[in-house]
């Protein structure tokens, strides 16, 4: 490589790195700003210009959160709901994705298209019939009202189907059938080890969705002991006095579990995106 070409390549790479650094800072800034607001008094937050450095009110603001709502109880409920729903979604959606990708049965394409159509329907349209069903089951104010409907995920089925179709060779499946493997054993022993990155991606998406879900839990949960964290945080907003430091303190600490989950699954998440997982 000539010196001129090498310099041009170095400049291009430096430009790309600079853009990535700027994009990273812009992405991290809202979280940093939330932390700054969570550590300052309400009077400091309302100043113009506002504070840009963390203040001394971190413990005080979080103590006010604990005195206002059952924060750790709500965190536990959200963790329970998000974890169980995510595990159930991974199992059911991977089974369905395997069936659509590798099995042959009548009406497969029509059924798959029907599942894709449900992704275009706003979830708010199903709120009333879903509420009626939950009421008849006697699940109001019960975490089952959130967990059971959340296990089935049309996007999860689509994602798993695309990943399995692209990364599990048909020849490997046929060879396993010739060796006498059952359908479930082919799924469990051959398909599952291959689709671990897809599991990580879907787990992050589903966990974040269930953790941040507000409307449906607000409808079916009535007592504070059963509140998820997003519903509980609503209790920090007073109609007359608005303590922004306390509100943002609760919001910041409620975001920490999501950051931990993403960091744990980050490598597998990136791996799934770099393997051409969405090829048809």
From TrEMBL:
Question: Which keywords does UniProt give here?
Answer: Cell membrane, Membrane, Transmembrane, Transmembrane helix, Transport
The record's subcellular location field reads: Cell membrane
Task: Please name the InterPro entries in this protein's record.
Answer: MetI-like
Membrane topology of the entry: Multi-pass membrane protein
Q: Which organism is it from?
A: Evansella tamaricis
One short Pfam family name for this protein?
BPD_transp_1
Entry's PROSITE patterns? ABC_TM1
**Name under which the protein is recorded:** Carbohydrate ABC transporter permease
**ABC transmembrane type-1 domain span:** 75-265
Key word Cytoplasm present: no
Where is it chiefly localized? membrane
Q: Which family does it belong to?
A: Belongs to the binding-protein-dependent transport system permease family.
Lineage start: Bacteria, Bacillati, Bacillota, Bacilli, Bacillales
